[in-house]
């Protein structure tokens, strides 16, 4: 009985050929393949074994020849570079056997009872070899896409590229370019940049495992398709991937995930990280990977992640406004002692501000709504209690950070006091919610260009949003943990 062994000989180095493949080569009566690959196995071929070159791009002829030789009772090894099952000969040979009826003796000149068995021996794929040279880029979910449209319509390839980009897969790119295909790689880069950060790590290896080997690490924005040829494999990281010491690392999630158990982790400053905080950071990373736009400034992104985490509402990406470096500026003012007080319009906002962060930074959060003077002032002047609360707050803390999560009249009151020169807020968080005067109150805030502002535009808002935006400011030093290289 004849046998076909489909063997992957690895990317091109003798050291990367598996012992099982070498043993098959030693036992082969015939070896069929492209002549370029014979150099890697010739020292293992037994005397009398015939090595048959079918030429490049003649895969069907190669498979037919393998069947013909196997039907004559030979052990035939069909060699593919990399892994024979990945863009290799294994699918073709199995397909040929499944679609072709048993040959008649006249067709093959053999006894039809001479059945052919098929065995596949895996090899190290080019993307695996490239990954080992680039560091650890394939540590999480990944996919492989070939840009060759010889047998797959480009429309199908493009759909797969979009799916990989949107799905946040680490992506290996095979057949990226040829003499006749020059634009497809540019299109892939364009599609990925619509869904991935410009800082996404990209690595590529030319002639992996061979003497001509070249290894390069760059970013999605800096990647130049002109550096690529048909002998190159490209690896694009996911939203968690980062570059460290010239290597690409894609975290599996052992740090900052439940897979590491419920044990506290030690942060870089020696503090013990509590499981709840680790879960929050991991949630932020998940949200970040699903944002439609990936290149927000870090301080805006930090506020946005807090807003979405609190509301589970991705519309925040459209309606959350922050002045340039507003979060960072306000955090710096807290650190240098300029900002010492947060004033809120209602007690629910105060309750939602993280007490540990306030204590650690020496900040006081106050709401005047329960102050006995408020009811008296509101009654005598015919204004709302929240308006009265803001008037009292401005008298005692004119330079505080003011956070609004409920009452548009309170926000409007602050705006009037600013215009009269009585209030000089260090910052404003404008997130009142409702239907009456809500949008107008937020419009009133924007002209104060000298005051750092965070605004939830439109009718949406709420005490929970105002509180979480305060927390974003208080914890801005944690924002760096979302950036590559400072994983928990």
Give a quick summary of the entry.
It is built from 18 helices and 21 strands.
Description:
With 488 residues, the protein is of the alpha/beta class. It has 3 domains: 2-124, Tetrapyrrole methylase, N-terminal domain (Cobalt-precorrin-4 Transmethylase, domain 1, 3-Layer(aba) Sandwich), CATH 3.40.1010; 127-249, Methyltransferase, Cobalt-precorrin-4 Transmethylase, Domain 2; 291-482, Cobalamin biosynthesis CobH/CbiC, precorrin-8X methylmutase (Rossmann fold, 3-Layer(aba) Sandwich), CATH 3.40.50. It is 37% helix and 18% strand. It is built from 18 helices and 21 strands. The strands form 5 sheets. It has a 6-stranded mixed sheet, with helices on both faces. The longest helix has 16 residues, at 275-290.
Topology diagram in text:
Blueprint: E1 2-8, H1 19-27, E2 30-33, E3 50-53, H2 59-71, E4 75-80, H3 90-99, H4 105-108, E5 116-121, H5 126-134, E6 135-136, E7 142-146, H6 154-166, E8 170-174, H7 184-195, E9 201-206, E10 214-219, E11 232-236, E12 242-244, E13 247-249, E14 265-266, E15 272-273, H8 275-290, H9 298-311, H10 316-319, E16 320-322, H11 326-335, E17 341-344, H12 347-352, H13 355-361, E18 364-367, H14 372-381, H15 385-396, E19 401-404, H16 408-419, E20 427-430, H17 438-445, E21 453-456, H18 463-474
Parallel strand pairs: 1-4, 1-5, 2-3, 2-4, 6-13, 7-8, 17-18, 17-19, 19-20, 20-21
Antiparallel strand pairs: 8-11, 9-10, 9-11, 12-13, 14-15, 16-21
């Amino acid at each position: 009985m004849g046998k076909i062994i489909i063997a992957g000989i690895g990317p091109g180095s003798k050291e990367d050929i598996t012992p099982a493949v070498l043993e098959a080569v030693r036992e082969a009566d015939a070896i069929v393949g492209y002549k370029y690959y014979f150099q890697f196995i010739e020292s293992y071929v037994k005397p009398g074994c015939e090595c048959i070159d079918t030429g490049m791009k003649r895969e069907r002829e190669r498979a037919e020849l393998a069947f013909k030789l196997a039907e004559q009772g030979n052990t035939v090894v069909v060699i593919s570079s990399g892994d024979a099952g990945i863009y290799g000969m294994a699918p073709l040979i199995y397909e040929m056997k499944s679609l072709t009826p048993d040959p008649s003796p006249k067709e093959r000149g053999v006894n039809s009872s001479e059945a052919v068995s098929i065995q596949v021996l895996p090899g190290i794929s080019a993307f695996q070899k490239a990954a080992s040279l680039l560091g650890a880029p394939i540590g999480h979910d990944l996919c492989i896409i070939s840009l060759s449209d010889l047998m797959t319509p480009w429309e199908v390839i493009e759909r797969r590229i979009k799916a990989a980009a949107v799905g946040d897969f680490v992506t290996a790119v095979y057949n990226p370019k040829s003499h006749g295909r020059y634009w497809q790689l540019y299109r892939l880069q364009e599609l990925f940049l619509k869904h991935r950060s410009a800082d996404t790590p990209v690595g590529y290896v030319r002639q992996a495992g061979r003497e001509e080997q070249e290894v390069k690490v760059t970013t999605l924005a800096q990647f130049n398709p002109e550096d690529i040829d048909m002998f190159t494999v490209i690896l694009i990281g996911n939203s968690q991937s980062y570059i460290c010491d010239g290597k690409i690392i894609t975290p599996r999630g052992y740090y900052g995930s439940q897979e590491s158990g419920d044990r506290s982790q030690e942060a870089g400053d020696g503090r013990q990280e509590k499981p709840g905080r680790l879960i929050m950071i991991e949630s932020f990373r998940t949200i970040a990977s699903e944002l439609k736009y990936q290149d927000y400034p870090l301080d805006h992104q930090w506020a946005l992640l807090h807003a979405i985490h609190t509301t589970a509402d991705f519309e925040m990406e459209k309606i959350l406004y922050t002045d340039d470096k507003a979060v960072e500026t306000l955090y710096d003012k807290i650190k240098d002692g300029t900002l010492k007080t947060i004033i809120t319009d209602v007690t629910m906002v105060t309750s939602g501000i993280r007490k540990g962060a306030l204590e650690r930074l020496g900040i006081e959060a106050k709401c005047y709504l329960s102050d006995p003077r408020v009811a008296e002032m509101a009654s005598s002047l015919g204004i709302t209690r929240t308006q009265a609360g803001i008037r009292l707050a401005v008298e005692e803390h004119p330079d505080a950070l003011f956070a609004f999560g409920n009452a548009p009249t309170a926000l409007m009151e602050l705006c009037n006091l600013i215009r009269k020169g009585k209030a000089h807020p260090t910052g404003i968080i404008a997130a009142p919610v409702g239907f009456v005067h809500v949008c107008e109150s937020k419009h009133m805030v924007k002209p104060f260009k000298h005051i750092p502002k965070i605004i939830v535009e439109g009718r949406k808002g709420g005490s929970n949003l105002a509180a979480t935006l305060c927390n974003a400011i208080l914890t801005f030093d944690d924002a760096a943990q979302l950036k590559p290289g400072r994983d928990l």
